[in-house]
Structures are given as structure tokens and as C-alpha cells.
Amino acid sequence: MAIELPALPYADNALDPHISERTISFHYGKHHAAYVNNLNGLIEGTDLADASLDEIVSNAEPGGLFNNAAQVWNHTFYWNSMSPDGGGDPSGELAAAIESSFGSIDSFKEQFKADAVGNFGSGWTWLVREGDGLAIAKTDDADTPLAHGKTALLTIDVWEHAYYLDYQNARPAYVDTFIERLLNWQFAEANFIP
Ligand SMILES: [Fe+2]
């Protein structure tokens, strides 16, 4: 059973002007779709042909299979980490956990931004469960918390293809917009309280 490209959780132009329809058309329609196609080409006819995406990501050795599978998983998680009605602050138990782990919501936002801006190359910044608390995790290239047994709550893609058409080299402006206008706290809250 082939791995499918999940539908976006909103219309292609729903994040405009923060993330343009043109960016979505390339990022989702070309990059994400290519990872899905590459992955299906790699598992077709193998004993992984019927494996779930989570099983492949969790068990693959470093290399092309892992990279494509993880990028499929990461991008689906990224689309859900944003919302046309995003931004603002978390609430309830997640807000309390963030205040406990980072000192305050604002302090979390500052640390998340610093991590995302500070990733020298291509990668991802995540909010993850760590022990009894929460932590920010940086991953490079296709790497993902799922491969390290960690539960992700939200993520931002800081590969240049995520922002270059809209922000050119201004990654900090993209990260600010993600945090203040797009971040889907309801998704993070749902992941925090499974
Ligand atoms: Fe991406």
C-alpha cells in the first residue's frame, strides 16, 4: 500500500500573505509530493511496501529511505503546525507546562526563535516532550524527533524552500511570522494531551 500525500489542512492560499500560495504550490505540491513519490519508489516491492510511515521513519537506517520517509512525516506535521487562525498564546495544561519548562510563554517564543534562526543549514526546530517537561529540539536536514523516540508537539521548517519566495534570506522575519501569525497552538495542545 503506497504512502499517500495527505491533503493540506487548509486551502493553498489560506496562509497568504504570511506564506503565499506560490510557496505552498512549490513546498507542498513539489517538495512534499516528491518525498512521497521517492519514498514509494524505494519501498515498492520490498518488505516495507505495507509498512506504515511511522514504522519506516522509526526503523530506517540513515540514508535515502530515512531521508524521504522522515521528510514526508516532517512536512505533514509542519502543515498542521500552522493555521490561518494561528498565533497568540497557548492555553490550559500546555501553557502551564511551557511556563514551567521555559519560565514564560514569551521566553519560550524567544528560545524557539533563536533555535530556528540559529540552525546554520537546512533543518527543523521542534517543541517536544522531554522527561516530565518540554524542550526545544533542533534537527538537521531530514532528521526528526520520531526517530529518537520523542513526541513532537509542533515544528517549523527552516529549509530555505519554506520561506525564500516570500522572505528571501530574511529567515528571522519568517520565524517571527510563524510564531505570531501562524502557529497552531490547538494542534500542539492536542499532541500534548493524547
Ligand atoms: Fe520543507
Explain what you see.
The protein is mainly alpha-helical and 194 residues long. It folds into two domains: 21-80, Helix Hairpins (Orthogonal Bundle), CATH 1.10.287.990; 92-192, minor pseudopilin epsh fold. The chain has helices at 21-43, 53-59, 64-80, 92-102, 105-118, 164-167, 171-182, 185-192; strands at 123-130, 133-140, 152-157. Strands 2-1-3 form a three-stranded antiparallel beta sheet. Helix 4 crosses helix 5 (105-118) and helix 5 runs antiparallel to helix 7. Bound molecules: fe (ii) ion.
Q: What's the gist of this structure?
A:
With 194 residues, the chain is mainly alpha-helical. The protein has helices at 21-43, 53-59, 64-80, 92-102, 105-118, 164-167, 171-182, 185-192, and strands at residues 123-130, 133-140, 152-157.
